[in-house]
């Protein structure tokens, strides 16, 4: 049976109120898959299914933000409160932040006191910080417990924690003293003390740390979770490895789109984002880049006489100018990614320029040889000479511009990833026009 | 004390054989940080430090491939065998694969029989598959064990497994029957049977599955590890969440570089990759793209007369042609990333074309309004009309080309990410030249 037929049957069963039948056929599906199925049902049966699913709050946390908000409008208030109440604290705060003020105010009284407090706290942190992605459900232990008592405590805490594989040892003021893994506890003697076993040299992040840095720390040290502390060193949450993976993917997507000159967050979906929103994400750069192209136009206008007398030069214009832009995009792409992955730092810029110049020179000479044959074929030996010299200069300049732009943008407080391929291309184009036509005017006239 | 001064002191202590002192000052550092320090020491003291570090095989696995190979040449053979023997099985196979045949043959006899077998097996899998990144150290249990016996068994297996938080239940033929978490075991009654507790609906991947798909599965279902089975359903390894995160980052880097028209693996480092290697990664696309630019040149040559009679057209050439290229790069970037993250599938292409045409039309009209003022200012109302019509056509075509190229490349068996910004730009440039000059020749003559 194809997936579409299956969806059709599920939809039919739900429409005719054969709930048991639908649930039975969905029994072996996982939360992420159920969320996909829900996304493809019409709104009426979507609602019926969510109302009846056994693991509904877990499945709900896998739904896309748009569908969560849409369901929040149609589900009975107490059902919504139950679903949100059972979600993990970080997901719960995310859903809450997406509701409009009216919905939020309607929902709050239906939630338990502790959940209300938790939402208020977690939604108070700025987007993009550790606080905004952390969970407040983690296992804690006291320093003077025995291993046997610690395991007993973890057992009782398990339903309310994201993981029991790591427990954080706190003093009475909830200051972070150490961390201990369930593996250590299982391997230790039952009467040993947590004090002697815990690791005291704990990695942590501040609650206002950049979420990207938190994700990088988790990846670098292969952690399952990173504890988050406030200004006073008091533990306030954990960021888990799966959240770190989501952050890393979001950051990669945003950088990727920036390089293509699209202003966007990773939430943008080609399928479901409204047309006008897609338009807004793209129009700024397109209009901005017109000014870059105008520079090329002005350069060409300046040399109009030379072009008019030697119209063969126009034939090679796209080739030369394009090669500079292409080499420049390569350089900026390499640099932006190397900065993002930590392969290079800003302080390496100067030493990298030397390496890049060598690479650019090799590339330029290769291209010059190729293009001078073409020049000789369509023009004469002078045209060939103009092309060869121009090509080396243009590729060299293109590479140096492409490599430097991310650094310059950063100096002025912009994201280095804004050095998009189209931006580098238009700057290199204008430079290329000037170099080419200047060299031509010197050699040919 | 600055980091550089600290490195200087460590180097000095090692040079003067004050090993204890150096180790004492490095005591609080983590493996990933120690690997960074080692990378910055000269080769002699690098070797001394690795020889004396207490956790040397763990630190060794964090070193870059180049430094691992370099150290493998200078370390005494038995020390190298000890280090490699103690490494986790996947890291061990990775290092082994990087050694040359002579080094491999020298090393094998110094390793234990089990390690030799393990290396032979793990290095036999193709790069890019689950087999090439999996570890063969995982905890296993039998189906008819009690919970108490299972915990005892995990305790004894712990030193030889990557994780004890998940254990795989196998039958006598090592076929995968189910999976159970340490959390489940801790929460269960001691006399319960594994049979009743284990999850039998286990997610797994085949050993020849694409590593990118394995990483996506781990991210989608928020797993700590994914079991890997062979053709017969026999369990052969696990891929852990941290390996999945590394794969996701590598794939993102490769796609990112492809969009910038650089043929590269994620292993490329701007700082340490040899110049000639960087050259080779870039020259193919640069030369290839010359042909794209030649098409533009041929287009221009075809309209040489019109240009010569109306030299003002050249002024607007970069602007019009550039805008098509920029809009096209935006479309292809959005599409490549949406395909990579799973936001869209190839089957969505046709329905996406409609949305994209609408966005492109809005963008084109905006740009047309802007550019027609310029045309009127520098030329007359006819030039303004040529520019407005051309701009709408060029942006529309650019977007449709940018959106379709990833799909077309995929149809012909190429990676859709090869639809790089420079490739899209050169195709759009050539199209733009034709559209612009054709419209001009109709309206102006």
Automatic annotation (TrEMBL), chains A, B:
Job description of the protein: Acts as a magnesium transporter.
- Its recorded name reads Magnesium transporter MgtE
- Species of the source: Acinetobacter faecalis
The membrane topology term of the UniProt record is: Multi-pass membrane protein
- The lineage's top-level taxon is Bacteria
Compartments reported by the entry:
Cell membrane; Membrane
Q: Which family does it belong to?
A: Belongs to the SLC41A transporter family.
Q: What gene is this protein a product of? A: mgtE
Assembly description:
Homodimer.
Q: Which SMART domains match?
A: CBS, MgtE_N
């Amino acid at each position: 049976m194809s997936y579409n037929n299956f969806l059709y049957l599920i939809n039919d069963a739900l429409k005719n109120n054969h709930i048991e039948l639908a649930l039975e056929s969905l029994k072996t599906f996982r939360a992420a898959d159920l969320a996909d199925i829900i996304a493809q049902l019409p709104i009426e049966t979507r609602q019926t299914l969510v109302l009846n699913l056994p693991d509904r709050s877990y499945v709900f946390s896998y739904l896309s933000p748009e569908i969560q908000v849409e369901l929040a409008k149609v589900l009975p208030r107490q059902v919504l409160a139950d679903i949100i109440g059972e979600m993990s604290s970080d997901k719960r705060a995310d859903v809450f932040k997406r509701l409009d003020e009216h919905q939020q105010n309607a929902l709050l009284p239906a939630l338990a006191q502790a959940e209300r407090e938790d939402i208020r706290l977690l939604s108070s942190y700025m987007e993009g910080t550790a606080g905004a992605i952390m969970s407040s459900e983690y296992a804690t232990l006291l320093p003077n417990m025995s291993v046997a008592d610690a395991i007993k405590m973890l057992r009782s805490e398990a339903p309310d924690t994201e993981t029991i594989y790591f427990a954080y040892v706190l003093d009475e003021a909830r200051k972070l003293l150490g961390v201990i893994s369930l593996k250590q506890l299982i391997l230790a003697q039952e009467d040993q003390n947590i004090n002697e076993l815990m690791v005291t040299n704990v990695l942590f992040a501040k609650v206002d740390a950049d979420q990207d840095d938190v994700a990088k720390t988790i990846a670098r040290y292969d952690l399952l979770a990173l504890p988050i502390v406030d200004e006073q060193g008091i533990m306030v949450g954990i960021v888990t490895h799966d959240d770190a993976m989501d952050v890393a993917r979001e950051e990669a997507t945003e950088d990727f789109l920036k390089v293509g000159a699209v202003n966007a967050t990773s939430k943008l979906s080609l399928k479901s984002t409204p047309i006008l929103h897609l338009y807004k994400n793209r129009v700024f750069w397109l209009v901005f880049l017109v000014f870059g192209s105008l520079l090329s136009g002005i350069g060409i206008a300046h040399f109009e006489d030379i072009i008019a007398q030697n119209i063969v030069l126009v034939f090679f214009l796209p080739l030369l100018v394009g090669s500079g832009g292409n080499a420049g995009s390569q350089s900026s792409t390499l640099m932006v990614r190397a900065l993002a992955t930590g392969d290079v730092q800003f302080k390496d810029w100067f030493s990298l320029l030397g390496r890049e110049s060598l690479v650019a020179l090799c590339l330029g000479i290769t291209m010059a040889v190729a293009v001078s044959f073409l020049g000789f074929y369509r023009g004469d030996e002078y045209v060939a000479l103009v092309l060869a010299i121009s090509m080396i200069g243009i590729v060299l300049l293109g590479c140096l511009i492409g490599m430097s732009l991310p650094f310059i943008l950063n100096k002025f407080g912009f994201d280095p990833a804004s050095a998009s391929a189209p931006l580098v291309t238009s700057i290199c184009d204008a430079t290329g026009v000037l170099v080419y036509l200047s060299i031509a005017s010197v050699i040919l006239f």
